[in-house]
């Protein structure tokens, strides 16, 4: 399978590829791979983010809120990171739980965001894949 069919690779293309090929292990010789698995502590999937104040993580979280505000015409204000995971794949793919509040309310709510970080790129180093309120 060619990711993106020769066109620009999108986050959806990567998610679909990982889903169809057994996750990150496909790149390290797992299902669909041909070389022996590599156990370097990074292969095998999502890793919890230990330092929620890591500047790259906070930058991705703030970007997610700002981009969501643009796309949904909302006025959310970033409060803090609650938790998150990261996956190394052509940069970092972050699954974040973010505390944010609407400018009109006093109580923050939690939101789940997926952000693709490619900080070495000058154009569009961060891409927001999804942003949803966590209910319940």
Automatic annotation (TrEMBL):
Pfam families: SQAPI. SUPFAM superfamilies: Cystatin/monellin (SSF54403). Residues 41-131 form the Cystatin domain. Keywords: Protease inhibitor, Thiol protease inhibitor. SMART domains: CY. This is Cystatin domain-containing protein. It comes from Rehmannia glutinosa (Chinese foxglove).
């Amino acid at each position: 399978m060619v990711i993106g069919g020769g066109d620009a690779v999108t986050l959806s293309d990567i998610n679909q590829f990982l889903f169809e090929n057994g996750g990150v292990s496909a790149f390290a010789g797992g299902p669909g791979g041909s070389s022996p698995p590599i156990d370097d502590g990074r292969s095998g999937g999502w890793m919890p983010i230990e330092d929620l104040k890591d500047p790259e993580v906070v930058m991705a979280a703030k970007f997610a809120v700002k981009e969501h505000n643009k796309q949904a015409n909302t006025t959310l204000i970033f409060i803090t990171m609650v938790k998150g995971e990261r996956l190394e794949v052509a940069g970092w793919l972050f699954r974040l739980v973010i505390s944010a509040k609407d400018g009109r309310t006093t109580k923050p709510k939690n939101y789940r965001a997926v952000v693709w970080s490619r900080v070495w790129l000058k154009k569009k180093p961060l891409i927001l894949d999804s942003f949803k309120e966590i209910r319940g």
